[in-house]
Amino acid sequence: MTSRIYLASKSPRRREILAGLGYEICLLAPEASPASAPQTDEERRPGESARSYVLRTAREKALGAIRMIEEKKLEVLPVVSADTTVVFGETILRKPQSVEEELRFLELLSGKTHVVRTAVAVGTTEENLETVISESRVTFCTMTDSMMKLYAGTDEPYDKAGGYAVQGLAGAFITHIEGSYSGIVGLPVFETVELLSHFGRGLESLTAP
Ligand SMILES: Cc1cn([C@H]2C[C@H](O)[C@@H](COP(=O)(O)OP(=O)(O)OP(=O)(O)O)O2)c(=O)[nH]c1=O
């Protein structure tokens, strides 16, 4: 029984979650950085719903890695990828590119409830690729201007979807969560282990001596 998998992600959070569960994360590109995986086009297509977008992006991240495994003739193991979006209605809040954009995001989030969706894809080939979506609702307290400025002045928001990290300082602004905490952080544990179990990487692979 093996718990060996590939992770098509440069997100340290996703790596920590999988490693914490006991998965052995194999390198996709041994000569490059451990997290290096093919880049995915993350542009939203005209008319594409927020839900379809997050699913497609997670799928494309996995497909990029699967193609690389085939080209480089690497060992075939299940690939895990994910995409997280913070959504207001149909508007997706990306990673903020500036302090000004982050302040705009915080004004939108302040005192309201929004949706966080993380899509996970797991597979070994294009034909054998499964996906799942975890959806959570996150409520922010009403933030004062000084709270917003203080947070936007830290490094925390700038590599996070929606411009905040529930697992960091932003936890101090969040009054209520409905759904999956790990899903908001970037990889929903329940759904991911469930998908991996279809590829022989379920709980028993993590607990085998
Ligand atoms: C909302 C939220 C997002 N995030 C992170 C999770 C993801 O890493 C990131 C969303 O961006 P993604 O595009 O999903 O992922 P990524 O670019 O970090 O990594 P990769 O595409 O290589 O897998 O935001 C948190 O860490 N905490 C949070 O509370």
Automatic annotation (TrEMBL):
Marked site (Important for substrate specificity) residue numbers: R13, T84, Q167
Gene3D superfamilies given in the database record: 3.90.950.10
Keyword Hydrolase (UniProt): yes
EC number: 3.6.1.9
Needed co-factor(s): a divalent metal cation
EC supergroup of this enzyme: hydrolase
Classification via NCBIfam families: maf (TIGR00172)
Role played: Nucleoside triphosphate pyrophosphatase that hydrolyzes dTTP and UTP. May have a dual role in cell division arrest and in preventing the incorporation of modified nucleotides into cellular nucleic acids.
Name this protein carries in UniProt: dTTP/UTP pyrophosphatase
